[in-house]
């Protein structure tokens, strides 16, 4: 379930690039920072931020695990290449996986990341 290293944002400079040059949308549980990058070969690069405001290490790791699972289930729907930074807000510690997934899908629609459904109507 781990994203390959090439798909992860790990350097502080890259997180700052998304923050300064990109745009941000806020939800109840998550904050999504995104930056379009047509030079990417893959659909997206992802960074997840969980601060100590969420709780101890166990809580932060649980939130990260849930977010990675949500991305794993829905990441194939991302249409264009983007750099994405997900920041978990305090309420994410008590949120269920379903609530996190629902908000992630809502944020993807707000940013127009979702590819149109190829099935005819």
Describe this structure in words.
The chain is an alpha+beta fold and 121 residues long. The protein has a single domain (7-111), classed as Ribosomal Protein S5, domain 2 (2-Layer Sandwich). The protein has three helices and four strands. It has helices at residues 12-21, 57-74, 97-111; strands at residues 23-26, 30-36, 44-49, 82-88. The protein has a four-stranded mixed beta sheet, with helices on both faces. α2 (57-74) links the parallel β3 (44-49) and β4. α2 packs across α3 (97-111). It is globular and about 35 Å long. The model has no long low-confidence stretch (mean pLDDT 88).
Lay out the secondary structure.
Layout: H1 12-21, E1 23-26, E2 30-36, E3 44-49, H2 57-74, E4 82-88, H3 97-111
Helix pairs in contact: 2-3
Structural class: alpha+beta
- Taking pLDDT < 50 over at least 5 consecutive residues as the criterion, the unreliable ranges are none
- The span between the termini is 33 Å
Query: What is the CATH architecture annotation?
Result: 2-Layer Sandwich
Strand count:
4
Mean pLDDT over the full residue set: 88
Helix content: 25-40%
Tell me the number of helical segments per DSSP (H or I, 4 or more residues long). Answer: 3
Radius of gyration: 14 Å
Under CATH at level 1, the class stands as Alpha Beta
Widest sheet, order of strands: 1-2-4-3
> CATH topology, what is it called?
Ribosomal Protein S5, domain 2
Strand content bin: 15-25%
Work out the count of structural domains: 1
> How would a crystallographer describe the biggest sheet?
4 strands, mixed
User: Order of helices and strands, N to C?
Assistant: HEEEHEH
Form type: globular
